Amino acid sequence: AKEDAGTSFQLYNHNMNLQVNEKIFMENNLRRAIENQELTVYYQPIIDIKTGKIKKAEALVRWEHPEDGIISPAKFIPLAEETGLIIPLGSFVLKEACQQLQDWINMEYHPIEISVNLSAQQFHKSNLKETVDNILDETGLNPELLGLEITESIAIQNVESTISVLNEFKNMKVKILLDDFGTGYSSLSYLVKFAVDIIKIDRSFITNFPHHSKRSAIVSAIIAMANKLTMKTVAEGVESWDKIKCLNEYKCDEAQGYLFSKPIPAKEFENLLKNNIEF
Ligand code: C2E
Ligand code: CA
Ligand code: CA
Ligand code: CA
């Protein structure tokens, strides 16, 4: 038994080393990917439920690996967070998305807004306001067309700093979206403290709804509450028309999901705008 314990201890150690090496390997790869511009931005439409027209695009990062193909953000965002690489990565996405929207505006396509995800490090450990200011200056984008998506977990890491950063964005007229709403450590008092413009109802509530009566009750209550707080609502992960019908009855403003489109490269998204698509 003693020997067994020794063996398993060694195995454990061996695995730990592998994990550490793999992490360093991945970190170096990601660093190179940022330098070599292997990162790209995909766009997913967010639809105005009333009109069926595209209202916004959410910018979602992808890694176009020369050998492995497209790598999903779930595979590298956590590492980027851990290593601080999320700060240059995040600035890249912000700049790219703002530049892209300004290009589309210049082409006089169907007008939309852009929405960009932020991470905790970007929010609390970098001079985010200055970065956003500079990017808006460089691209000439109207701040009212930019939305920043934050999660509750970002917000509660430092409530006081969150309140002051969000107020700065409010003064700049940049919109704030509360992402994945309902999954975090939701405290409704945050909705009062934080200058939030739009609530994105998490996909987990939209899945199985409207056939699941408890989920329907939660979704309709979130929308009713948001409307009373004069906040807008976006339903995430919408995959069928029966949900749209129900969301419309609940007075949800916008919807996003595979029903309309997966996240797609800029050129493909541009075609949707060019053709002024109506869903
Ligand atoms: P998120 O911000 O909640 O983004 C929505 C995710 O849901 C996207 O995954 C999108 O492809 C997926 N999705 C949209 N509609 C549907 C649907 O109808 N059904 C299903 N099953 N999924 C749907 P994606 O692009 O893989 O991104 C995953 C997460 O990675 C994002 O979740 C976000 O947290 C993070 N992320 C992506 N890009 C960035 C970025 O530029 N910066 C930061 N900090 N995080 C990012
Ligand atoms: Ca998001
Ligand atoms: Ca989300
Ligand atoms: Ca998410």
Give an overview in words.
This protein is of the alpha/beta class and 279 residues long. 53% of the residues lie in helices and 20% in strands. The protein contains twelve helices and ten strands. Strands 1-2-4-5-6-7-8-9 form an eight-stranded mixed β-barrel, surrounded by four helices. The longest helix is centred in the N-terminal third of the chain and has 34 residues, at 2-35. The chain is globular and about 50 Å long. Mean pLDDT is 91; it is low at 1-6. The structure holds ligand C2E and calcium ion (3 copies). Keywords: Membrane, Transmembrane, Transmembrane helix. This is Periplasmic sensor diguanylate cyclase/phosphodiesterase. Residues 23-277 form the EAL domain.
Instruction: Return residue spans where pLDDT drops below 50 for at least 5 consecutive residues.
Output: 1-6
Helix content: 40-55%
The string of secondary-structure elements, in order, is HEEEHHEHHEHHEHEHHEHEEH
Ligand kinds: ligand C2E, calcium ion
**What sort of overall outline do the alpha carbons produce when their principal axes are compared?**
globular
**Count of DSSP strands:** 10
Average pLDDT for all residues: 91
For the sheet with most strands, the description reads: 8 strands, mixed, barrel
- Structural class computed from helices and strand pairing: alpha/beta
Distance between the termini: 66 Å
Rg estimate, integer Å: 21 Å
**Beta-strand content estimate:** 15-25%
Q: Write out the strand line-up for the largest beta sheet, numbering strands in chain order.
A: 1-2-4-5-6-7-8-9
So how many helices?
12
Protein name: Periplasmic sensor diguanylate cyclase/phosphodiesterase
Domain EAL: 23-277
